Amino acid sequence: MRNNILGGLVIFMVVLTCLLMLDDISNTQEEPVSEETAHIEQSAEQTDLAVIEEEE
Hints:
There is one protein chain. The protein is an all-alpha fold. Helices cover 45% and strands 0% of the residues. The chain has one helix and no strands. The protein has one helix at 2-26. The model has no long low-confidence stretch (mean pLDDT 78). Residues 31-56 are annotated as: Disordered.
């Protein structure tokens, strides 16, 4: 009896994963890609610090 429950749970999870993958593949909405860049600047007075600026 216990093997039947575990086997059913495994089959259910595999089917659910396949359905989610198919949904993700069939959804062809193009989303804008945003790049995150970081600029590192070193100051002449402080050589061990870096300034990181993010642009949105």
